[in-house]
Amino acid sequence: MPDNSPDEEGLFRGTRRDFLKQSSVLSAIALTPAPIVKAAEDKWDEKIADALEKVTVNLEVNGVAHSVKVDPRVTLLDLLREHLDLTGSKKGCDRGQCGACTVHVNGVRINSCLSLAVTNEGKKITTIEGLADGDHLHPMQEAFIKHDGFQCGYCTSGQIMSAVALVKEGRTQSREQISEFMSGNICRCGAYSNIVKAIQEVKNSQV
Amino acid sequence: MNPFQYTRSFAAAGAIQSVLKEPHAHFLAGGTNLIDLMKMGVVLPERLVDINGLPLKSIEKTPTGLRIGALATNSAVADHPLVLEGYPLLSLAINAGASPQLRNMATVGGNMMQRTRCNYFFDTAMPCNKRTPGSGCGALTGYNRMHALFGASDQCIAVNPSDMNVAMVALDAVVYVKGPKGERKIKFADFHRLPGDHPEKDNTLERGELIMAVDLPAKAQAFNKHVHYLKVRDRSSFAFALVSAAAALNMDGTTITDARLAMGGVAHKPWRLQEAEAFLKGKTADEDTFKQAAAIAMQGAKAYKYNQFKLTLAPNAIVQALKTASA
To answer: Which residues of A touch B18 (CB under 8 A)?
Structure first.
């Protein structure tokens, strides 16, 4: 079975399920159960299944190239948080409803919780960690601090990533337009009015 | 999430073959609905065929109108100059749906394929004929506030959640699909189906068929000046429609020379209102005319225990959409 390369169909073969089916058969016909028990104790099925199932994804995060082997079920959000230790992007609802996981992919804001990591092959990702220039915060980060655009802070990295994209999109013509095009980022503390002020300041400073 | 095989395809034929080889295979485009459903355990694919590498993102003029590639994102379509100029109703409807982040991910083909937001469909502890055929309909005698007024069956009273679909059906769009038996075109109005005895089938696609593009006819550009998409929902943005109304008028002074009218949130498919359209033709655009059109549109409506309010909300939404469009 090929390790991590697709076959002629483009298919990454070998699933945990197939392997477990095979190992069940092995278990059933085993004359002596001892090696099977030992294998189970050592979690060999898990280890082998992992090696068979993982897919390599190459992507650039905040300017740094990464090549990571992941289970195809891993979302971009989990890849960032669990594999690359970039925990600035937050997991709120994990269903695309709160926006705490917002990142930029090739310059466009998306919900990283609904994007499988493997579908981001060759993409350039920017997270909240990639906004500042060393110790110099991004103008949107400065504006959020100045206008108190947060309380508990959990939604803030998503809000800021969305706000940076919003300004680039030119959706800042009015308070109403800002609210409408920031609607994918929920703030349970209700810092909305200050978030809008922060966005307006950044927008006005650019004109 | 259930384990699945992951494959990338770069050509339609290969993607179709790959899906046909596995009984529980799905094409993966933007993933905004499918990945969510997989996390919830509502959909359990054994294989995902990633079609994002297929060359289906373009939006271009054709001799008969405009062709929108199935993988064009919702935001790319809504912001496209040719759409804004010729088919502004479509832009309005798309921007009324989801959030900017989701519209940046979601594709036209994926939007057409999105499943209902019926709570009983999402809750795997509940009966649902759409999720598990034969298990019953939890919504029929349950909390059916979001549910259908038209075309439902005793098997399913769920509604199609898309805003984009409402504009597409109003504009007489045509869906171009490719499958194991070749290519074919499906009128947008015939793409989605009513639940009948098979609510598990949202649409008329056959196994292995892939949406390639949606064609908008040049004729529909006659409706580019007087349009409105009114979406009524529980909060002012980023929520599914309780009721939505799409209105597009061709006017000569105050006379309506032709009309396109459709509703969302009221049926298992985007609900075109052709009888009301025929009534509006040649009439003067005023509130009385709009109220009569709305009354025609509501004929045959049937509400359930918790969505009675839609019987008032829906005609009001039609009147308001027509007023705004004609103003």
So the answer is: 9-11
Burial of B145 (0-12, 13-18, 19+ CB in 10 A): middle
**Between chains, do A180 and B14 touch, taking CB under 8 Å as contact?**
no
- Look up residue B199 and give its two tokens: 């609510």
Out of A12, A15, A184, name the one closest to residue B238 (CB).
Answer: A184
Determine the 3-state secondary structure of A60 from DSSP. strand
Q: pLDDT tens, B77-99?
A: 999 999 999 999 999 999 999 99
Interval A8-37: pLDDT, tens: 555 554 444 454 445 554 554 455 556 666
Q: Are A45 and A58 in contact (CB under 8 A)?
A: no
Residue B124 in tokens: 């795997």
Flag whether residue B289 sits within 8 Å of chain A, measured between CB atoms. Answer: no
- The predicted pLDDT at position B295 comes to 98
Binary contact (B100, A166; C-beta < 8 A): yes
Considering the entire predicted model, what is its pTM?
0.92
Average pLDDT over chain B reads: 98
Q: What is this model's ipTM?
A: 0.96
- Whether B48 and chain A come into contact, CB under 8 Å, resolves to yes
- Residues 6 or more apart whose CB falls under 8 angstroms from that of B12 comprise B54, B56, B178, B210, B212
Q: Is A179 on the interface with B (CB under 8 A)?
A: yes
Q: Which residues pair with B187 in a beta bridge?
A: B174
**Contact call for A9 and B98, based on CB within 8 A:** no
Nearest CA in chain B to A111: B101
Beta carbons within 8 Å of B48's beta carbon, 6+ residues apart: A72, A116, B4, B5, B6, B7, B25, B26, B27, B28, B34
Q: Residue B75 pLDDT > 50, yes or no?
A: yes
CB-based contact B7 A162, cutoff 8 Å: no
| Residue B101 identity | Q
Structure tokens at B146: 């979001």
Mean pLDDT taken over chain A: 86
